[in-house]
Design goal:
It is a single chain. The protein has a 14-stranded antiparallel beta sheet with strand order 8-7-6-5-4-3-2-1-14-13-12-11-10-9. By secondary structure, it is mostly beta strands.
C-alpha cells in the first residue's frame, strides 16, 4: 500500500511538481529507499524507487482511468526480479498477475471489483470519505493483495495526531484474527495532502520480505529542462531534500 492521484498540485508551465518520498526503516530508522512520484496527466502516475545511493531498482506506472481508488498498475522490482500487473478487462473483471524470478507465476481473474480499492487508490478512498472519517465513522473496504491475488477486508478510522495542524488515520484489518498478524497502517495528512505513511511497504527487500517503513513525502518543483531527465530529477532530490524524519545521519542518504 503506498502513496497517490494521491497528490494534487497545480502545474505551472515552467515547472513540474514532483513528490519525493524518503522511506525510513521502522526499526533502525535508516533510509531503506527513496521514491519519486510524477503525474503526467490526471489519470497517470509514475513512480521510480531508488537505493540510498541513487540507483533505480524499481518502477511503477498507474492508470486511474477506471476510477480514482481502483487504478490498474504495473510494478517491477529488480531486487527480487518481481513483476506485479493489475489490469481492468473489458467485461469489468480484474486481471491480476504476480511473478518472481521468472519462476513463480500466479495469474487470476477477479469478478465484482467495482468497489475494490487498489494500490495507491487507498489515498483517494480516504479523501473521498474525508468528512465521514473526520466525524468519527469507521469505514470498511476491500483492498487488493496482488501477491496473494485476493481481497483483504480493511477498516479505516480517524486517529490521534501529535501534530495539531495535521489529521491522522489508521487502517487495520477488519477481521480481529488478521489484526493480530498485521500491524496497522498510519497516515498523516496536512491540508488534505498525504505527508507521512507508516506500515508495510509495497517494496520487497533482497530477502523477499516487504519493508516496514515510515515514508516522509515532500513536494519538489523541478524546472522543465531538468524534469525531462530522470538523472537530473534524482540529483535535484539528493541536493534539495534533507532527512525529514531524522534518519540515521551515518547512512548513505545523509546528503539528502
Amino acid at each position: 500500500m503506498c502513496a497517490f492521484t494521491v497528490f494534487a498540485f497545480a502545474q505551472p508551465v515552467h515547472a513540474e511538481k514532483i513528490i519525493h518520498g524518503t522511506a525510513f526503516d521502522l526499526e533502525s530508522n535508516k533510509v531503506a529507499y527513496i521514491e519519486i512520484h510524477r503525474f503526467p496527466s490526471d489519470t497517470r502516475h509514475k513512480v521510480i524507487y531508488a537505493e540510498p545511493s541513487g540507483d533505480v531498482f524499481a518502477r511503477k506506472e498507474l492508470d486511474y482511468s477506471s476510477g480514482k481508488s481502483t487504478p490498474g498498475f504495473t510494478q517491477t522490482n529488480r531486487r527480487v526480479d518481481e513483476v506485479i500487473e493489475v489490469s481492468h478487462l473489458s467485461d469489468g473483471a480484474l486481471s491480476v498477475r504476480y511473478a518472481v524470478e521468472g519462476k513463480s507465476v500466479k495469474e487470476k481473474t477477479l469478478q465484482n471489483v467495482d468497489e475494490l480499492v487498489i494500490d495507491a487508490g487507498f489515498n483517494n478512498f480516504v479523501l473521498e470519505h474525508w468528512d465521514k472519517l473526520l466525524a468519527g465513522d469507521s469505514l470498511e473496504f476491500d483492498y487488493l493483495l496482488p501477491t496473494r491475488q485476493q481481497r483483504f477486508r480493511l477498516e479505516a478510522e480517524r486517529d490521534d495526531c501529535r501534530d495539531e495542524s495535521a489529521t491522522c488515520f489508521t487502517i487495520r484489518p477488519a477481521n480481529g484474527f488478521f489484526a493480530l498478524l498485521m500491524k496497522p497502517l498510519k497516515l498523516k495528512y496536512v491540508d488534505g495532502v498525504l505527508e507521512q505513511f507508516s506500515g508495510r511497504s509495497n517494496i520487497a527487500q533482497d530477502s523477499g520480505d516487504y519493508h516496514q517503513v515510515r515514508i516522509e513525502y515532500v513536494p519538489l518543483e523541478i524546472a522543465k529542462e531538468c524534469a525531462d531527465s530522470e538523472a537530473c530529477v534524482l540529483n535535484h532530490a539528493r541536493e534539495g531534500v534533507s532527512l525529514q524524519g531524522g534518519g540515521d545521519q551515518s547512512t548513505a542518504l545523509a546528503r539528502y
